[in-house]
Amino acid sequence: MNSRKKADAAKSAPRNRAAGISPARQAAFDILLAVERGQSHSDDLLRGKAVSALSLPDRNLVTALVLGVLRWQIRLDGEMRGFLIRPNAKLEPEVLIALHLGALQILQMDRIPVRAAIDESVKLAKQAGHRFASGMVNAVLRKLAQSLPSGAALKEHDFSRATNAAITPRALAPEGSLSEELALAQAHPAWLVERWTSFYGLEAARAICRHGQSQPALTVRLVTPAVEVELHAAGIILEPGQLLTAARIVVAGDVTATEAFREGHVRLQDEGSQLVAELACWDGERLNQDEKKILDACAAPGGKTLILAELNPRARMVAFEASVPRLEQLRKRLAFLGDRVECRLADATTLKEEAVFDLVLADVPCSGTGTLGRNPEIRHRLRPEDLSRQAERQKAILAAALRAVRPGGRVVYSTCSLEPEENEQVVAAVLVATPNARIVPLEARIGELLSESILTVSGAERLRGALTSEGFLRLLPGSFHTDGFFICMIEKTS
Residue 336: CB partners within 8 Å, gap ≥ 6? Predict the structure, then answer.
């Protein structure tokens, strides 16, 4: 091969081969950089084409690296800070990501040689155009590795052990230090942990943080009971869900590779998310009559819409989505339902319909603090002032939903947030301005779902224990093996 052909081949070669970087580390670096730039969410990127094209071991390593860095970033920064010449200096995102990846592997991944973790982090920094800073990456990571005790050091520095460690008070600790220690030990922003401790107590806050540092259970919904036999035959090992009889936890096997998944007979969906839609389907006999109308006001990605359609086969449904790309995805997902569901590009805050629908589900956009195990980057983006901004939009959606429902109809308001500003306070503010509406306590609905064998016996008991004094339902991560949810039902009286 002549020199020109060699140069052309080098230009066209995959970037990781040219730099001598493993495909998994390159993919993890690219995903973390995209998340840092706000281009997409880690959950979406980890299920994207670039990762899917890798071998199974590489896919697993990419997931471990990306979620490990996002979950433990606060701890990683703390561990590295003492080895930086200027600890408070702002580093370029590419350099910081290279440091995070290297530090995570050194501190937590005892099967990865320290030399490989350091060398490839240095190469990642160089490849990103930071050749000078790559020397600093090398120096910091080597000092970090040398600081560890020999032998069993990695296990003793394993962050998962810190996750389960008890938080004990120091002799002369300042007030509030328990929350601060918990925040640092489990790599959550201190302001969030302080809020949770104040609202729910230290033990609940600790459970929320632990849940945020663990991989969520992979939960599916069985559209028909018979599909479980098909999945078993395909080598999928399932366990019963904790709350719903139609939910299963995947213990082993790739559900997404089965024919049952491709044909829509089984769907990936958090059990708490499934519960929201089940609770919404009140008075099933009346809703199943002709001419009844249901609105899913914030529908994408469509999991709850599908449950509403399944449980109300004769109802006419409208699904709103304000984002064009998400609307297109929603339409594709619901296409098999034909004209039963109208997917409409619309912002629920500007809903003009009045007294049209029998049921409105308002599963509103929120801070997502109940999903930190699934979306760990939220903790790094969220700021206290974001909560009031979210709340204004949530109030507008709930008020519009109440206008759109007929007298006697109901609105189910839900979020995957743990924050009162987005939950109880939104409901209270809207009800003050809507005198012809009242809260419907969810205890009776839980009893109905139990009698219909939709809830398990133990699930119904646990949900009753999660009811607030107002009759709202709050699922706290750690107390339930689900994402965190707040659910409220409101009836329009006239």
Answer: 264
pTM: 0.87
- pLDDT single digits (tens) 183-217: 988 999 999 999 999 999 999 999 999 999 998 88
- Cα separation, 369 vs 371, in Å, equals 5
Q: Let me know the angle formed at the C-alpha of 190 by 185 and 194, rounded to the nearest 5 degrees.
A: 110
Instruction: Quote the CA–CA distance of 287 and 314 in Å, as a whole number.
Output: 8
> CB atoms < 10 A from the CB of 177, how many?
13
pLDDT tens figures, 327-360: 999 999 999 999 999 999 999 998 888 999 999 9
- Residue owning tokens 């190469």: 123
The DSSP letter of residue 129 is: T
How far apart, in whole angstroms, are the C-alpha atoms of residue 305 and residue 334? 9
Q: Domains in the chain, start-ordered, CATH in brackets?
A: 11-156 (1.10.940.10), 180-214 (no CATH), 219-268 (3.30.70), 271-492 (3.40.50.150)
> What pLDDT does residue 203 have?
94
Contact criterion met (CB below 8 Å) for 242 and 219: no
Spell out the alpha helix ranges (H) of 295-383.
Answer: 303-311, 324-334, 378-381
| Exposed e or buried b per residue across 180-214, where buried means at least 16 C-beta atoms within 10 angstroms of its C-beta | bbbbbbbbbeeebbbbbbeebeeebbbbbbbbbbb
CB atoms within 10 A of CB 252: 8
pLDDT tens column, 466-479: 999 999 999 999 99
Bridge partners of 473? Answer: 467, 487
Longest dimension (CA), the chain: 84
- The 3-class SS string of 220-243 reads EEECCCCHHHHHHHCCCEEEECCC
Picking from 467, 493, 471, the residue whose alpha carbon sits closest to that of residue 407 is 493
Looking up tokens 């052909």 gives 5
SS3 percent helix, strand, coil of the chain, rounded to 5, is: 55, 15, 30
* Residue 152, CA distances (Å) to 78, 106, 107, 149, 334 in order: 21, 12, 11, 7, 53
Tens of pLDDT along 131-168? 888 888 999 999 999 888 754 343 333 444 333 333 33
Q: Are 106 and 159 in contact (CB under 8 A)?
A: no
DSSP 54-111: S-HHHHHHHHHHHHHHHHHHHHHHHHHHTTSSSTTPPPPHHHHHHHHHHHHHHHH-TT
How many CA atoms, within 13 angstroms, populate the side-chain half-sphere of residue 443? 9
Torsion sign across C-alpha atoms 343, 349, 353, 357? positive
Q: How many residues does the chain have?
A: 494
Q: How far apart are CA 419 and CA 195, in angstroms?
A: 8
The whole-angstrom separation of Cα 381 and Cα 24 is 25
